[in-house]
Recover the amino acids of this structure.
């Protein structure tokens, strides 16, 4: 194995610690420097990691040691920071989404292609043993030819626990844009790219009331749809039904189910790396829990960056920019379809990501 890829992080918010812990234990990566609008926050974030420098954003971009910029800024800044990294000749790996809109994301990908650098993007939870074991079961024919899938995420809304939930109810937020990347990325990983979508959506309340923290009782405006549903028509012909809502107390629906001609799979929560995969076969009464047979065991956020680092030149990483753009277009088109009442064709295409085989001895 060659030298580790040197990582510079822009954005030291809550998610930084999860990435830093993963980077520290993976030989493919080395954390070199960080930058944040709040230097004190940056210094506190790297305190457990000896030798990591705190720089300005401009200083980080100019640092010749850094191979890849890990972009952990807020979604509204993703494209801006990515373009700065690309202009500096560095690879870039973003937290989800790749950019706030497909237009902005397309600009990032064009700039990267022109500069000869690579783009990767979360979520990488699909590389864990949960989604990958389900993927292997499908590829091994345990459910026969896949026919349909369902994906469900339902909560009462983030204002019940988040002290500053404004973003979730503003453009770029809502249940689909917030949580949809996990579910749609998993569906594409399991069943391949999507060709057409048709959606419906609603917004039941003009305001939400913050239920915790120093702003307890404050009302915030709701300017996005808080219940989104629709059908994704995969290139393979599989129909996936998606339900994303901040409108229910709870649900007992599985996060993801995949149905085939000979059986059905329950796929674990795509917001996590692992979890049980359950199989029911036609003619059998009981569900069987499958052993973890593929994916990265014990994975954490950042394993997609390690995959990015070790993907040979000329090949698309599993958590690559093409997949992230395709997922963003699917979600944006689903919302547009909900408002127009017509089915929309997805113009982008990506390859179904390569599976993550089980490690030797697993």
């Amino acid at each position: 194995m060659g030298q580790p890829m040197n990582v510079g992080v822009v954005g030291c918010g809550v998610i930084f610690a999860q990435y830093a812990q993963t980077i520290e234990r993976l030989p493919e990566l080395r954390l070199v420097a960080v930058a944040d609008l709040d230097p004190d926050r940056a210094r506190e974030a790297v305190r457990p990691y000896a030798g990591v420098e705190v720089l300005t954003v401009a200083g980080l971009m100019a640092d010749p040691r850094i191979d890849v910029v890990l972009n952990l800024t807020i979604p509204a800044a993703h494209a801006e920071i990515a373009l700065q990294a690309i202009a500096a000749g560095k690879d870039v790996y973003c937290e989800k989404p790749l950019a706030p809109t497909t237009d902005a994301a397309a600009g990032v990908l064009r700039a990267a292609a022109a500069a000869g650098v690579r783009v990767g993007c979360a979520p990488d939870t699909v590389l864990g043993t949960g989604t990958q074991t389900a993927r292997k079961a499908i590829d091994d024919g345990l459910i026969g030819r896949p026919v349909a899938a369902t994906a469900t995420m339902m909560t009462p809304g983030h204002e019940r626990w988040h002290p500053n939930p404004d973003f979730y109810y503003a453009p770029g937020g809502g249940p689909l844009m917030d949580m949809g990347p996990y579910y749609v990325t998993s569906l594409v990983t399991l069943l391949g790219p999507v060709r057409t979508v048709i959606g419906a959506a609603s917004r039941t309340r003009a305001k939400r009331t913050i239920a915790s923290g120093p702003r307890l009782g404050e009302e915030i405006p709701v300017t996005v749809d808080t219940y989104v549903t629709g059908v994704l028509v995969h290139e393979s012909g599989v129909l996936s039904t998606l339900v994303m809502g901040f409108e229910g107390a709870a649900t007992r629906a599985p996060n993801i189910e995949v149905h085939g001609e000979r059986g059905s799979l329950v796929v674990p929560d795509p917001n996590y790396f692992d979890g049980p995969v359950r199989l029911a076969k036609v003619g059998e009464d009981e569900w069987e829990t499958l052993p973890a047979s593929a994916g990265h065991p014990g994975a954490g956020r950042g394993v997609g960056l390690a995959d990015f680092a070790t993907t040979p030149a000329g090949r698309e990483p599993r958590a690559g920019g093409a997949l992230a753009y395709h997922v963003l277009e699917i979600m944006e088109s689903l919302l547009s379809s909900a408002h127009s009442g017509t089915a929309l064709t997805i113009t982008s295409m990506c390859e179904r990501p390569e599976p993550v085989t089980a490690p030797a001895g697993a």
